[in-house]
TrEMBL record:
Positions of the UniProt region annotated as Disordered: 106-129
Pfam families, per database record: Oxidored_FMN (PF00724)
Highest taxon listed in the record's lineage: Archaea
Cofactor: FMN
Record-linked InterPro entries: Aldolase_TIM (IPR013785), OxRdtase_FMN_N (IPR001155), YqjM-like (IPR044152)
Keywords, comma-separated and alphabetical: Flavoprotein, FMN, NADP, Oxidoreductase
Protein name: NADH:flavin oxidoreductase/NADH oxidase
Record-annotated NADH:flavin oxidoreductase/NADH oxidase N-terminal domain positions: 6-346
GO molecular function, one term: oxidoreductase activity
Organism, as annotated: Halovivax cerinus
Length: 366
């Protein structure tokens, strides 16, 4: 039988109830610049679980304090962070959704103001900090960039350990899925791309060297999550910089197989973010699906593939799954405007049988 958007998805010991995942989306809503989740996160993530999502992924959650994009980002760099996240994961699971966390490090794109404050580089005098990257090349902002320091060998080992500790805390907090953020020009993507990685040691140069840290992080996260729980990795399939030596889809196909061997179950296929010169051809419905599909078709392993980008309509998400173009429809902005997107999609597609409307809300869906 053909799968559709309401078919469950089995990954390891986890059964995801349908194919709608809420994409990680920063909320920039930590009150005290301490990385601790607030009522906002509880309501934001909890509502999408109530709204029928199969998977609810947290925003980019920093494994190190210096790995936050803004001072208001969520973190998981201490056991206190874990303890505040635990009741949120518990509530999400109680609503039938699978709670997932995106483990992140912003690298040279850390230390910025929030989007509604201009996403400007945040200087140390204003509460910003020195960033770290594979090479000491700051992100080319229009304004002065915070200082970027090259990670040495010990620094790289510390980053891998931070992802490991983040995954341990995520598991202890009750998250069933850990997604490694290796996209959008943040630290792990900065190692992958020759645009940002100018190293000449075993973490730079060849494909194998540039991908080494991500394989090490994936192995560490897999190790901590255990054999039962799924591990996802989000990648940028292309840098959209064909005019120079950069990261592209061919490398992404090869990487997907390597990550599968390192313990990843699903590759979440996004794109871009490494450099402001990126030339994105077109942004619209399914604009990144062709990359997901290509990776899925050309991969030698049976790693699952999620697609994200411009999924806004019920029929569109359903068609992606029915036509077997990806395993998971990962939805960002539509979930911001409609926390109940999957429930509304079920009504629209005549599939009320496939969702559980919470008893408290049933009269609203009669
Ligand atoms: C994002 N995106 C994003 N991606 C990610 O991997 N980690 C994150 O924390 C964020 N944060 C974030 C915040 C906000 C407000 C938006 C709108 C987006 C990207 C997001 O997950 C998704 O990939 C894109 O929005 C494209 O999908 P949609 O919105 O077209 O469905």
């Amino acid at each position: 039988m053909t799968d559709d958007a309401f078919s469950s998805l089995e990954i390891r010991d986890t059964t995801v109830r349908n194919r709608f995942a809420m994409s990680p989306m920063c909320q920039y809503s930590v009150d005290a610049r301490d990385g601790l989740a607030t009522d906002w996160h509880r309501v934001h993530l909890g509502s999408r679980a109530v709204g029928g999502a199969g998977i609810v992924l947290t925003e980019a959650t920093a494994v190190e304090e210096r790995g936050r994009i803004t001072p208001e980002d969520l973190g998981v760099w201490s056991d206190d962070h874990r303890d505040v996240l635990a009741p949120i994961a518990e509530f999400v699971a109680s609503q039938g959704a699978t709670p997932g966390i995106q483990l992140a490090h912003a690298g040279r794109k850390a230390s910025k103001t929030r989007p509604w404050e201009g996403s400007e580089p945040l200087q140390p005098v204003d509460g910003g900090w020195e960033t770290v990257a594979p090479s000491a090349v700051p992100y080319p902002y229009d304004d002065e960039s915070p200082v970027t320091t090259r990670l040495d060998g010990d620094g790289i080992a510390d980053v891998v350990d931070s992802f490991r500790a983040g995954a341990r805390r995520a598991r202890e907090a009750g998250f069933e899925i850990a997604e490694v953020h290796a996209a959008h020009g943040y630290l792990l993507h900065e190692f992958l791309s020759p645009v940002t990685n100018r190293r000449e040691d075993e973490y730079g140069g060849s494909f194998e060297n540039r991908t080494r840290i991500l394989r090490e992080v994936t192995e560490a996260v897999r190790d901590e999550m255990g054999d039962e729980r799924p591990v996802f990795v989000r990648i940028s399939a292309t840098d959209w910089l064909d005019d120079r030596r950069s990261w592209d889809v061919e490398q992404s196909v090869r990487l997907a197989d390597d990550l599968s061997d390192a313990g990843a179950d699903l590759i979440d296929v996004s794109s871009g973010g490494i450099h402001p010169d990126q030339a994105i051809e077109w942004v619209g419905p399914n604009y990144q699906l062709r990359f997901a599909e290509r990776i899925r078709n050309e991969c030698e392993t049976d790693v699952k593939i999620g697609t994200v980008g411009g999924i806004r309509a019920a029929e569109q998400a359903d068609a992606i799954i029915r036509n077997d173009r990806a395993d998971l429809a990962i939805v960002g902005r539509r979930f911001l405007s409609d926390p109940y997107f999957p429930l509304h999609a079920a009504v629209e597609l005549g599939r009320e049988d496939a969702v559980d409307v919470p008893v408290q809300y049933q009269r609203g869906f009669e």
